[in-house]
Specification:
The complex is a heterodimer of chains A (467) and B (468). Chain A contains five helices and 29 strands. Chain A has four domains: 24-186, Methylamine Dehydrogenase, Chain H, CATH 2.130.10.10; 199-285, Immunoglobulin-like, CATH 2.60.40; 291-351, no CATH class; 369-459, no CATH class. An eight-stranded mixed β-sheet of chain A has the order 2-3-4-5-9-8-7-6, with no helix packed on it. In chain A, 17% of the residues lie in helices and 34% in strands. With 468 residues, chain B is mainly alpha-helical. Chain B has helices at residues 17-26, 31-61, 76-81, 88-107, 111-131, 140-148, 160-171, 188-212, 220-227, 234-237, 241-257, 260-263, 268-286, 292-295, 307-316, 320-341, 353-362, 379-391, 403-409, 428-436, 454-465; strands at residues 29-30, 182-183, 370-374, 397-401, 416-420, 425-427. In chain B, α7 packs antiparallel against α18 and α8 crosses α11. Chain B is 58% helix and 5% strand. Chain B contains 21 helices and six strands. In chain B, the strands form two sheets. A four-stranded mixed β-sheet of chain B has the order 4-3-5-6, with helices on one face. A two-stranded antiparallel ribbon of chain B has the order 1-2. Chain B folds into four domains: 16-186, no CATH class; 200-302, no CATH class; 304-345; 362-465, Glutaredoxin (3-Layer(aba) Sandwich). Classes of the chains: A alpha+beta (467), B mainly alpha (468). The interface between A and B is large, with 76 and 72 residues.
Chain lengths: 467, 468
């Protein structure tokens, strides 16, 4: 009891609660805060970016250009720059966080899922795991590099001093924070493995890996057990999608297509470390109207009726056998054309060759961002270039059948893909793979290419091996 | 006494919508058109067999499983029938049978059976590919065309089967050159394909209108769809929004009104080139693939048997400059279609096109016309004429019976005489050489037949064989 009291006293900040508690070993006070804001940065071989007021300049051997901005008012005064190994440079400016990459000449606002953080960005830092740390005058947050999820630090995370904040890199991979009351060092990833979330499926606790069967159209509600909120929240994805998304307290999933589905859910800690997934397998059966018996019965009724009708029509034929044949084929034709029309009205691709045509029926509007995903490879002596999956000697229906394993499958698929690629290109030994989503913003002046999202990065060997 | 009623024994004409239905689907149509359509459809299926072949094979062998995600999500019919993923052994068997069925169907041997086998196995082939990915629209019309073929007299013309039947019939005293021109049910596969295409295009446009409304033509939509793909023409087309508004409107108009081509066949002159252009632009801007399996089925709208004559007239009439002007796009279109086709199909199969090309050239050369006379009472001569008639792809031979004149001249009655447009008559080896110059399949032999010593050997051979 006495020891606990001493520990509590030691953990208490000396000045009434501004700086973090020492009981949270991730935080500690330091003498010196983050280095000064970086207003000039090496962007790529032969190119530097430098901030000058509200302008960002790119200097290359061919001259200097002022990068433009897709936001109408521009970025505002630029406060800090940070680059990540995959090539993107993040720009902290008064009007938000922006991104740019060597291939593009436009700054584009980064919009994290869920609205991002409050305040004007003051600084940005990307650590070795490609987490983007952003400080504003009101908050500190860390985002996954796809900006699909992140975490805003608060008092419950040990950050008790008010802003304005600044973040920057420490010497050993830690994050240095400057706040109103001094400087702090934050060491991420100290906590142990993150516990998997427990899910409630339709209000009932659900063990990971269990199978749930339901009929097409049945409602399905997924919720997080209130005991498992997790510091960074709970994320989910369906059918191995490459992007984890925040799982709200409760999520009503719309009618899932018939067939097998997988819902994975992970807990995230405040440093965006993910737990092992809690998996819910779903087997969505076809609705009764698609059951074999029902369809056979309806088909037989419709076909039989049509057959009889046509037979009646041909009853005066001098060749009864031919009349029967013609009536049969007429009934088949009526069914085939009828089913084509039904498929057009109620589209469902799996009924091929009776298919609908809902592809390409969505709408894009001004300001939308278009994603064009692809693989980029490079080697020690091989320049970066786009690589189509078929260059590894495979054929596929949808390139995402290759992208997804590369993004979410860990090292094994990346190594296998590199091996297959290098076997077919012995003169170009690649050692690095990135799955990138090129991005284009639609504007009245035409599409503007903006910084890509690097969805995954893998390096086979060398000092930066792995992800 | 009233004249004999040619319609006697047939179904009396019935008016009304059901009669119209019968006429539409089962009415008479040129058998040559059907035969050409059969060859186009099966050749297109062969293209599809190759197009999806590598993927199906890799799926069957489970190749690249470390980095290629292959969930088996069967199409509904497979699920209902309990058809599972294909294995490597089954792949070998199915691909061999399918290739043989397509080959026999194209050549016209056991034609209906071959077409049925080709339809079933192509369905299985494509369905397997789609079950490992997403179903697409490129094989819909082809699938229906394939399944419709066995219902029609697909082997009545341009088939080894019909040639053999003619040969046998000639031996039994039938007319050797007699070929049926039209037949009932011959239009069925063409109609099925036409309706499928019309339904497909209509719902493509209608779904866009229903789900997106008029906003679909805002230009940004098409721009965004193009930008999702790194295709060669994307940078050019996606740059400017206003032309994309016009193109979007054009696409909607084309798709929603496509069924008009069923009611007004002349509109095919507008719709078919527009649809082909649409697919080419979609391929080059959105990486949709060439959609060869779809737009080769446009052949169902064409009077295929009249195409050579039509092209011949274009190239034979008018001033030379105009002919040249017409020849350039025709040649470009022909080369474009062939190059697309041989993207997937082994080039050696292109050898089969050489006689077709020769036939096309011969068919516009009136000077090659000849009359072939034979002894109508001689079964061997009639069989010979049946063979010649089958080989006459350029329609340069006119068959006539020689009667007693030649019988009297010949010692054994096995005589054949070839009369050219100048009235010159040839018999024996010279007759054979003259025919080789006019029959596309024999044409490669023709240069050999003028080499020194060959005529002498040929005459001896003919004399030894005793005919003609």
């Amino acid at each position: 009891m006495g020891a606990a009291l001493v520990a509590w006293l030691l953990a208490c900040p000396p000045t009434g609660g501004g700086l973090p508690q020492e009981s949270d070993p991730a935080w500690e006070r330091v003498e010196r805060g983050p280095p000064a804001a970086r207003l000039e940065i090496r962007e790529s071989d032969g190119a530097t970016l430098s901030a000058a007021g509200e302008n960002l300049l790119r200097r290359t051997g061919r001259g200097t250009i002022v990068l433009r901005c897709t936001s109408p008012g521009g970025p505002g005064p630029i406060r800090d720059l940070a680059s990540e190994p995959a090539g993107t440079t993040f720009v902290a400016a008064d009007r938000g966080l922006f991104a740019v990459s060597p291939e593009v000449e436009w700054l584009d606002a980064v919009q994290p899922v869920g609205g991002g953080i409050q305040g004007k960005p003051t600084s940005v830092h990307v650590d070795g795991r490609r987490r983007v740390w952003v400080a504003t005058d009101e908050a500190i947050a860390v985002f996954h590099s796809t900006f699909s999820y992140g975490h805003v630090f608060g008092r419950e995370d040990g950050l008790r001093s008010p802003g304005p904040y600044r973040v920057g890199p420490g010497v050993k991979g830690e994050v240095l924070v400057e706040c109103r009351e001094g400087a702090l060092r934050y060491r991420p990833d100290l906590a142990g493995p993150v516990a998997s979330p427990r899910l409630l499926v339709d209000g009932k606790s659900w063990p990971s890996g269990a199978l749930r069967t339901l009929s097409y159209g049945d409602p399905l509600r997924i919720a997080v057990d209130p005991r498992d909120a997790g510091e960074g929240g709970v994320l989910y994805r369906i059918d191995g999608h490459h992007v984890w998304r925040p799982l709200p307290r409760s999520l009503d999933l719309g009618p899932l297509h018939p067939g097998r589905h997988t819902i994975e859910s992970v807990s995230s800690d405040r440093d965006l470390n993910l737990s092992e997934p809690c998996v819910v397998h779903l087997d969505v059966s076809y609705p009764p109207r698609y059951s074999r018996g029902f369809l056979l019965a309806v088909g037989a009724l419709a076909g039989g009726g049509a057959f009889l009708g046509f037979l009646l029509h041909a009853r005066r034929s001098a060749r009864p056998l031919a009349a029967w044949g013609q009536a049969s084929v007429s009934a088949l034709l009526l069914l085939a054309v009828g089913l084509q029309i039904v498929a057009g009205i109620v589209p469902h691709a799996r009924a091929w060759p009776f298919v609908g045509f809902s592809m390409y029926s969505h709408v894009y509007r001004e300001g939308d961002v278009i994603y064009r995903t692809g693989i980029v490879a490079r080697g020690e002596d091989v320049a970066r270039r786009g690589v189509a999956p078929w260059e590894a000697g495979i054929t596929y229906d949808d390139p995402w059948q290759v992208y997804r394993p590369l993004i979410v499958g860990g090292d094994a698929p990346n190594l296998a893909f590199l091996s297959a690629l290098n076997a077919r290109h012995p003169g170009d030994p690649f050692d690095t793979l990135q799955v990138e989503a090129e991005r284009f913003r639609l504007t009245p002046r035409g599409p503007i290419r903006v910084a890509p999202l690097v969805l995954s990065r893998f390096r086979k060997e060398g000092p930066n091996a792995g992800r | 006494m009233p004249a004999a009623d040619p319609e006697r024994g047939r179904t009396p004409p019935i008016r009304g919508s059901l009669a119209a239905w019968d006429r539409f689907w089962f009415g008479e149509a040129p058998l040559l058109r059907l035969a050409l359509f059969r060859i186009v459809v099966l050749a297109t299926a062969l293209w599809g067999l190759r197009y999806y072949g590598a993927a199906v094979e890799q799926h069957a062998r489970g190749e690249a499983a470390a980095f290629l995600h292959r969930p088996w999500r069967p199409i509904y019919l497979f699920e209902a029938l309990g058809i599972g993923p294909i294995g490597p052994d089954a792949f070998g068997i199915v691909s061999t049978i399918l290739f043989v069925a397509l080959g026999l169907g194209i050549l016209g041997l056991f034609t209906r059976l071959s077409c049925l086998a080709a339809a079933l196995l192509t369905f299985y082939w494509v369905g397997t590919f789609y079950s490992y990915g997403k179903p697409h629209h490129d094989f819909v019309a082809l699938a229906f065309a394939l399944f419709a073929l066995p219902f029609a007299p697909v082997g009545a013309r341009l088939s080894l089967g019909s040639a053999l039947a003619r040969w046998r019939r000639a031996g039994r005293g039938g007319v050797p050159e007699g070929k049926p021109e039209v037949g009932p049910w011959a239009g069925l596969p063409l109609r099925v394909t036409q309706v499928t295409l019309a339904v497909g295009y209509f719902f493509s446009g209608a779904t866009k209108l229903v789900q997106a409304g008029g906003e679909w033509i805002n230009g940004y939509t098409l721009q965004g769809m193009m930008l999702e793909f790194d295709a060669p023409w994307t940078p050019f087309f996606a740059q400017h929004r206003v032309p994309l508004v016009l193109i979007s409107a054009g696409i909607l108009l084309l798709q929603t009104t496509f069924p008009l081509v069923l009611a007004f066949p002349r509109l095919r002159w507008v719709y078919l080139p527009s649809a082909a252009l649409f697919h080419v632009v979609a391929w080059k801007t959105m990486s949709t693939g060439p959609f060869v399996t779809l737009w080769f089925t446009f052949a169902c709208f064409l009077e295929l048997e009249r195409v050579p004559g039509f092209l011949g007239r274009l190239l034979r009439t008018g001033p030379w400059a105009l002919r040249l002007l017409r020849a350039v796009p025709i040649a470009a279109a022909g080369l474009g279609i062939l190059s697309l086709y041989f993207l997937q199909v082994p080039e050696w199969l292109g050898l089969g096109l050489i006689p077709v090309a020769i036939a096309g050239i011969f068919s516009v050369l009136p000077s090659l016309r000849v009359e072939v006379r034979h002894d109508g009472a001689c079964p061997a001569c009639r069989r010979g004429m049946a063979v010649l008639s089958s080989l006459d792809w350029a329609r340069r031979l006119r068959v006539g019976e020689s009667g007693s004149l030649l019988l009297a001249a010949g010692s054994r009655g096995h005589r054949l005489e070839v009369l050219d447009t100048r009235g010159r008559a040839r018999t024996g080896f010279e007759a054979f050489r003259a025919l080789a110059m006019r029959l596309p399949l024999l044409f490669p032999l023709a240069p050999l037949l003028v080499l020194p010593s060959i005529p002498r050997l040929g005459r001896r051979l003919v004399h030894k064989l005793g005919a003609p």
